Amino acid sequence: MTSLSDFPITGLFPPERPDAIQLYSLPTPNGVKVSAALEELGADYEPHLIRFGDNMQKSPEFLALNPNGKIPAIIDPHGPDGEPIPIFESGAILFYLAEKTGKLMPKDPVGRLECLQWLFFQMSAVGPMFGQFGHFFHFKKDQLNDTYPVDRYTEETRRLVDVLDKRLDGRSWILGDEYSIADIATFPWLRSVRDFYKGGDAVGLSDFTRVVDWLDRCLERPASQKALNIPPRPQ
After folding, report:
1. Helices 181-191 and 148-167, interaxial angle, to 10°?
2. Separation between Cα atoms, residue 104 and residue 112, nearest integer Å
3. What pLDDT is attached to residue 234?
4. What is the CATH number of the domain that holds 94?
5. Residue 186 belongs to some domain of the structure
6. What is the DSSP pairing of strand 45-49 with strand 21-25?
């Protein structure tokens, strides 16, 4: 029978509440997704800060949990078979939590599939492209001899925002009236483009009023506000 102590990461972070979901994360866009979902669900969880400055995500203990060396990752001590289960990849974690609780995802097959499509849209397009936009526009723009990377990812980011804006026509949330893991997966990346990368003007975000209003609605949620600093960053 598997126990939490069988996972090397628990040697670095001994659980204070071993019956709670163990969250290993940092409040980046991908990290905020899972914290926001856990908060929306009112889940019992224990957050542990993975410090990038110390390369903790590349430690043998963390790599045993996520071979890709990325946050977030969780261990649910009460997995489907009653034993602890480790899960990495933020989209997979959101799907798992929604499936387990029966919340934040429609129960009917058509609605469930629609939710998964938009979740995968975020994972395959919004996250990677917005991340590249932020890398070149915010972090490396002054070091480039060629404008192509900034132009390329600015254009693609704007295209994806337009896709989302069209989807939100007549809808409060991505799926309509129901807030879901599709929204939770996506809003932290839009927030980063606007508030962290300071790229709203470059992308022309103000042209997409439905997206801006939706982002504000997402950020007004108490769970979202809390998730922006879970686990708390070091002072």
Report:
1. 140
2. 10
3. 74
4. 3.40.30.10
5. yes
6. parallel
